[in-house]
Amino acid sequence: MNNVLRTCRGIVSVSRYIKVNRQSAQFVEREFHCTNSCFDKNPKVEVISVDSFNNVQEKNKQTFLDMLKMYRMEKFRSGHVEFINTAIKHMDEFGVNEDLETYKRLIQVLPAGKFVPQNYLQSEFMHYPKHQQCIVDLLQKMEDNGVIPDWEIEDLLVKRFGTRGIPVRRYWRMMYWMPKFNNLSPWPIPKPAPNDPYELALLAIKRICSIDIESEVKVYETKLLEESIEDTWIVSGQSPDQKKLVANHPENVPIYIEGGFRIWLRKQSIIYFILRTEPTQSKENEKEDEDDVSNFQVPFFDKPKTSNKIVRKKTLHEQEDGTILAVAATGTSSKNSLLSWIRLLEKDGNPKLSSIPILFTSKSPLGNVEPLVELDESKKQVEELEKKVSIE
């Protein structure tokens, strides 16, 4: 009987314990599902997406920096690599591909101290590889656009990847080579290059004519000619040696105007033309056959062969494929402007050009400079002149 009473009391105590636990669980459940906020976390919102860069109406530097600032203001932001890669693709559209401050802001998108390796294994096995490769691509973008980093970028990279990170090593290589090649060109060009075609033509013709230090670069105005149709400028380059070549050129051999050829000055280009003749026949001694041993000579006993022929020394303008007589760039790059160029050269120390046939060739990436019918007529005139000279 006592055992039965003890069992009943135990069952009652267990039932009371279960009721108390149920009440406490209901209380906790009510407190958990209450309207009061238990956490102060804001929901993750994609402030800047891939389409955000495309949907911007005014694409400039300030807009680009504002988008970076909006992304950095987000407290629980994510997708750093995707955001930086998207921003790199749109840097050219916003015109910030050559701005050093923009590259610094992009590096600051990554949080500092999170990706620093803690040991040698992590540093050698590229700790956080996607993030490091993302910044390496950013540094490659800087190198492609000729942007030299400064010491502040090193501090930003060390804070994010440590002194043994791959981006820091990439930065050190850039700082060693880029300053060496920055001012190595003998033809300095302002950065950015001018957009005015006239200034570009001056820089281009001076660069082309720098092979001869006596070359003179002159600017002509076509309106000074009465027979000129167009009103434009002509930047021409010619040296005294080239004027002598024109004076000694036979009248029955034509001269060709070839072009236009394109020359690049940083990211700007200009079209230029050349005045060229066929290569001159050299009067040098015929080359001997090195395998012929019939006239074998011993250098210590036989006298070396000498020649009494006098050979004129070639100038820098006489190349294997032809002789360059002048070079020029015009404002319109048209046939009329080139004809005005020839007339102006006649008045400027080349009077023999008036009696030499001049042909326009079709060796141009821009298309034919002169119709083929006019070329055929000019060729017939040259053939008739050659026949008359041969008969006389």
TrEMBL record:
CC per GO annotation: mitochondrion; nucleus
Localization, UniProt: Cytoplasm; Mitochondrion; Nucleus
SMART domains in the record: ECSIT_Cterm (SM01284)
UniProt keyword terms in alphabetical order: Cytoplasm, Immunity, Innate immunity, Mitochondrion, Nucleus, Transit peptide
Any Pfam family matching the protein: ECSIT_N
InterPro entries per record: ECIST_C, ECSIT, ECSIT_N
Residue ranges of domain ECSIT C-terminal in the record: 239-363
GO terms for biological process, alphabetical: cell surface receptor protein serine/threonine kinase signaling pathway; innate immune response
Record-stated family: Belongs to the ECSIT family.
Name of the protein in its database record: Evolutionarily conserved signaling intermediate in Toll pathway, mitochondrial
Organism of origin: Sipha flava (yellow sugarcane aphid)
Gene: ECSIT
